[in-house]
Amino acid sequence: MTENKKHKIVIVGGGAAGLELATSLGNKLGKKGLAEVMLLDATTTHIWKPLLHEVAAGTLDEAEQVDYIAQAYRNHFRFRIGKMDGLDRKRKEIYTSPTYNDDGEEIIPKRTFSYDTLVIAIGSESNTFAIKGVDKYCYFLDSTAQAFRFQKHMVESYIKSVVAIGKQKEKGLSIAIIGGGATGVELSAELHEVTDMLAMYGLEKSSNVKMTIIEASPQLLPALPPKLANATKNQLAKLGIDLKLGCRVIEITDKGVKTLDGEFIPADIKVWAAGIKAPDWIKRLDGLETSVINQLVVNQYLQTLDENIFAIGDCAACPWLGHEKGVPPRAQAAHQQASTLSKSLINRLNGQSLIKYVYHDYGSLVSLGKYSTIGNLMGNLMGTVTIGGFIARVVYLSLYKMHQVAIHGYYRTLLLTMSNLFRRTAHSKIKMH
Fold it and tell me: How many whole angstroms from its chain centre is CA 102?
């Protein structure tokens, strides 16, 4: 590496893993002029993905969004908007598709970016399992834009149903959430809280909204221990949310959901939250190995079969020592991978060895909004501990604060937290538009 040619690190994807990595490398390498760090993303703002159910419900303050351009300026990396759609490993180049505005006008043409080190951190999207009608009739919560789209439709549909009930005594709004994992469960509780809030603002009571969770597994929250899953099941039952467990969906129509056992579940709004995969175009990335759900296969150093290309976050199929299955696609994994890879890439620039990534599972938490938070914490000293209520809520919120600290630092995170607390005293608790 010559003095007039900086090492180029290109990070594709500004989710939790990608943004944390870009921020860390920008401050440790970009600030000192030791490397040129660039982040590429198809959107201009970031929201921590585990909070998208709150965006969809309209309960998350929009000030929580992080502007990539401002973040890049403050943390000494470059941001470019664009969606990667191709790779040439020999030439060490990535290609982006054109960027269009809301009117369909091309505002940024196809571009090519060169790299010395490439990190792919594009996250995941919903896996529809090729089930008929899902793409056409379901809403998804894979991105901020999708969450905002659902939120607007949900409020409009709720208001329409209230008017219909008042004039024609018709049935209320029905919502079906397909998938009983963390996203589906958290969304259902958040939506139940929102309908209560709407009633406070003068609309009908939440009893006029029928909510159903449909899960193929016989257990709600299949990834959690049965004890926690049952506790969540009981809480949702108290809220009047209908649970269809061991129920496999075979088709979605404009009127509702068809199941394998012949049942038809009517639903005005359908939300798909039944599994994830990496985007399909990853399978075409110049011979890189992928898993059955399109994730890039990486070794313990988070490295693909190409020594200059790494993958982190949900799009990476990473081995988990001592386990048959790989590292689960969780926020805590993305955070740990970004931290490890930051150190590895600094070592790499200095001619030192990469650092092995070892996943530490600290447990799982599920938030049921104001109603409850439950989960299990895991550690070497205390083993596995089940927690709930206020303590679980504090731990759940601390996970987000860890992400904020990683991208903003302690002082700015404190200021943002205080600012949001003040904003909530002057603004509506839910977004109405």
Answer: 23
Count how many domains the chain has: 3
**Cα–Cα distance measured from residue 218 to residue 245, given in angstroms and rounded to the nearest whole number:** 5
**429 domain residue, yes or no:** no
d(CA 290, CA 317): 8
Has residue 394 got a pLDDT over 70?
yes
* Residue 69 near residue 44, CB atoms below 8 Å: yes
- Closest listed residue to residue 62, CA positions, set 75, 74, 50, 46: 46
Asked whether residue 432 is domain-assigned, the answer is no
Q: What percent of the chain has pLDDT over 70?
A: 88
pTM exceeding 0.85: yes
Are residues 178 and 117 part of one domain?
no
The CA dihedral of 25, 29, 31, 32, to the nearest 10 degrees, is 170
Cβ–Cβ < 8 Å for 259, 267: no
Whether residue 380 has pLDDT greater than 70? no
Q: Are residues 49 and 102 in the same domain?
A: yes
Instruction: Using pLDDT thresholds of 50, 70 and 90, give the confidence band for residue 2.
Output: very low
d(CA 35, CA 360): 30
Domain that holds residue 39: 7-124+278-349
Mean pLDDT of the region 243-252: 97
